[in-house]
């Protein structure tokens, strides 16, 4: 029983974290950067392992943060030097990912991390990997890690809400108001990297992308207010996690895969029925009633 | 040389050639990430094809992947056209949800159909060494067919890539040709999946083409160069993979990226170095002119 609760809690935390960060990505039209960072973070994890010889906690977070920012920086550098933005993203992340995979395969006998795990994640093992303080277990490591990142995310969003909002909707106005747009961009990318690496272990690289983009895009169909959108997308993330988990255990398939499919189902339903921006509503408006 | 090794080299070279040439058009149409989406969206199609057919067959997989790839593009276009969600988010949604579905099906197959023996897992990360003679035959035929298709439709592809409106005006069936192009992208992704895997297949489409872009302004040369770059990276990656026991896919991509970086920095006209040098020379010329002008006034 507690096993189920820990998994659901992990999935819920992933849902909330990704929902919050993803909202800004969707609004800033940077969804594909999340795809990029979720892959290149692999290199950060391997790099952190090579430096610190352990696979958990702070070193992994720092490694992922550095590589995440490096990805953003390289993409922007190439873009500035005349490479079109979609190609710049494609070149940078695949290269960093490839280096990560090569390093893993070179150190495969010593690293407890394989590429399959990195891409698909295995949330089912989360409850077994517990954090112990003074000999007593205080819950899975993944939950603590995700909770810690959630605290950071909420802190940044509350603290810089206005700045994030203005720079996401109207970056030119933000510049004239003296808001440090570039700094905010990198802070957001930092949040994205942290969220990605914390979720990585449980849901895997590609499913992080699902959790980041799909609930936020769904929320974008339902509401026009940023605050509502944040809450809404976190809620959809949680809902998808629960539905996905139940479905996965019923059919005995990959939990993370099922979660991303259920985000897709929620999106698909919303696509039609969402009150303001749904397709049905639009068609009803068009047809002369 | 071992026959097996020859197979791997031939197929990697052909794969690189085809994907480089097709990638040229994807790049110029600013659809690089569509290749990424296709590579991920192919997975559920392959799994469903496997469920129906019951065993591994590249041809059946190709059909399955083409169907799900086509569905993915339809979804992306529908979302962009009918909602306020932008293209990048639409690609992300379709890519991740399709891939999630693929993973679900994959775990289902592994549990129910003895999928571990089917080698379907190799599609995720690619294993060029796992290519069998039959695979190589299919791969070779498909790659050759793709190259021929490109050559055959070259002029039409050129026009729809650079000036869609003009193409429509002249009566070229634009949407049909776009479909052909999309089908080529899906097919190259499918035959490449087994060799380099889902994630890196998109790189094989983008990177060689991007590298080729730096050397020429002509589409014909660019297509050819992209093909050569792709083939070179394919062979080099396969070679190092054989001696270093490292997966082929990532090595191919690292070689392709190295080619790109070299082009990005040192290409004669568009490269970074030559740009810097040119700017330097221009500035010097300007200074000389200014100096002469000032002296002229004084005299």
How many β-strand runs of chain B? 0
Helix content of chain A: over 70%
Q: What's the level 1 CATH class of chain B?
A: Mainly Alpha
Number of self-contained structural domains of chain B: 1
Instruction: Please tell me the overall pLDDT of chain A.
Output: 83
Task: Provide structural commentary.
The complex is a heterodimer of chains A (289) and B (299). With 289 residues, chain A is mainly alpha-helical. Helices cover 79% and strands 3% of the residues of chain A. Chain A has one domain (3-211): Orthogonal Bundle (ABC transporter involved in vitamin B12 uptake, BtuC), CATH 1.10.3470. In chain A, β1 and β2 (136-140) form a beta hairpin. The longest helix of chain A has 26 residues, at 2-27. With 299 residues, chain B is mostly helical. In chain B, 85% of the residues lie in helices and 0% in strands. Chain B has 14 helices and no strands. Chain B has helices at 3-28, 32-53, 58-82, 87-112, 115-118, 122-125, 133-152, 154-162, 164-170, 174-196, 198-213, 219-244, 248-266, 272-298. In chain B, α7 (133-152) packs antiparallel against α10 (174-196). Classes of the chains: A mainly alpha (289), B mainly alpha (299).
Give the key terms:
heterodimer; A: 289 residues; mainly alpha; ABC transporter involved in vitamin B12 uptake, BtuC; 79% helix; globular; B: 299 residues; 14 helices; 0% strand
Please summarize what this structure is.
With 289 residues, chain A is mainly α.
Strand-helix topology:
The complex is a heterodimer of chains A (289) and B (299).
Chain A: H1 2-27, H2 31-52, H3 57-80, H4 85-106, H5 115-120, E1 130-133, E2 136-140, H6 141-159, H7 161-169, H8 171-176, H9 181-203, H10 205-222, H11 226-251, H12 255-273, H13 279-286
Antiparallel strand pairs in A: 1-2
Chain B: H1 3-28, H2 32-53, H3 58-82, H4 87-112, H5 115-118, H6 122-125, H7 133-152, H8 154-162, H9 164-170, H10 174-196, H11 198-213, H12 219-244, H13 248-266, H14 272-298
């Amino acid at each position: 029983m507690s096993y189920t609760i820990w998994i659901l809690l992990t999935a819920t935390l992933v849902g909330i974290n990704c929902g919050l960060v993803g909202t800004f990505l969707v609004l800033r039209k940077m969804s594909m950067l999340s795809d990029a960072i979720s892959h290149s973070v692999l290199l950060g994890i391997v790099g952190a392992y090579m430096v610190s010889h352990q696979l958990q906690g702070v070193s992994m977070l720092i490694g992922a943060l550095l590589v995440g920012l490096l990805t953003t920086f390289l993409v922007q550098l190439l873009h500035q030097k005349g490479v079109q933005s979609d190609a710049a993203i494609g070149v940078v992340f695949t290269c960093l990912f490839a280096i990560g995979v090569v390093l893993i395969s070179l150190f495969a006998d010593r690293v407890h991390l394989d590429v399959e795990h990195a891409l698909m994640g295995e949330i089912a093992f989360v409850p077994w990997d517990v954090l112990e303080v003074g000999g007593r277990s205080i819950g899975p490591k993944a939950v603590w890690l995700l909770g810690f990142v959630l605290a950071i995310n909420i802190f940044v969003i509350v603290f810089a809400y206005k700045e994030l909002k203005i720079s996401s909707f109207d970056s030119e106005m933000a510049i004239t108001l003296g808001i440090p747009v570039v700094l905010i961009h990198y802070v957001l990318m930092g949040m994205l990297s942290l969220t990605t690496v914390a979720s990585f272990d449980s849901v895997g690289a590609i499913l992080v992308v699902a959790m980041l983009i799909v609930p936020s895009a769904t929320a974008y169909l339902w509401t026009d207010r940023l605050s509502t959108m944040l809450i809404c997308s976190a809620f959809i993330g949680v809902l998808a996690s629960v539905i996905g988990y139940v479905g996965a255990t019923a059919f005995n398939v990959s939990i993370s895969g099922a979660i991303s499919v259920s985000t897709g189902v929620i999106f698909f339903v919303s696509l039609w029925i969402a009150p303001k921006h749904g397709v049905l509503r639009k068609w009803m408006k068009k047809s002369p009633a | 040389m071992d026959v097996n090794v020859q197979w791997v080299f031939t197929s990697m070279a052909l794969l690189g050639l085809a994907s480089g040439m097709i990638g040229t058009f994807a790049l110029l149409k600013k659809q690089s990430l569509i290749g990424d989406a296709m590579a991920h969206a192919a997975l559920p199609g392959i799994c469903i094809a496997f469920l129906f057919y019951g065993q591994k067959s590249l041809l059946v997989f190709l059909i399955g992947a083409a169907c799900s790839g086509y569905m993915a593009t339809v979804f992306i276009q529908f979302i962009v056209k009918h909602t306020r969600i932008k293209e990048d988010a639409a690609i992300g949604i379709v890519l991740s949800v399709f891939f999630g579905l693929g993973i679900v099906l994959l775990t289902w197959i592994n549990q129910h159909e003895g999928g571990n023996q089917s080698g379907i897992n190799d599609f995720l990360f690619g294993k060029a060494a796992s290519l069998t003679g039959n695979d190589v035959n299919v791969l070779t035929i498909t790659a050759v067919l793709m190259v021929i298709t490109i050559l055959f439709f070259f002029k039409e592809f050129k026009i729809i890539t650079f000036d869609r409106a003009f193409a429509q005006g002249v009566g070229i069936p634009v949407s049909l040709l776009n479909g052909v192009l999309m089908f080529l992208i899906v097919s190259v992704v499918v035959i490449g999946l087994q060799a380099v895997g889902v994630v890196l297949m998109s790189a094989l489409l983008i990177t060689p083409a991007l590298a080729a872009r730096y050397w020429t302004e002509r589409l014909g040369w660019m297509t050819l160069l992209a093909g050569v770059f792709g083939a070179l990276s394919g062979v080099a990656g396969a070679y190092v993979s054989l001696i270093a026991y490292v997966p082929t896919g990532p090595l191919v991509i690292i070689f392709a990226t190295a080619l790109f970086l070299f082009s990005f920095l040192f290409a004669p006209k568009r490269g970074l170095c030559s740009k810097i040098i040119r700017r330097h020379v221009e500035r010097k010329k300007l200074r000389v002119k200014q100096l002469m002008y000032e002296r002229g006034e004084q005299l």
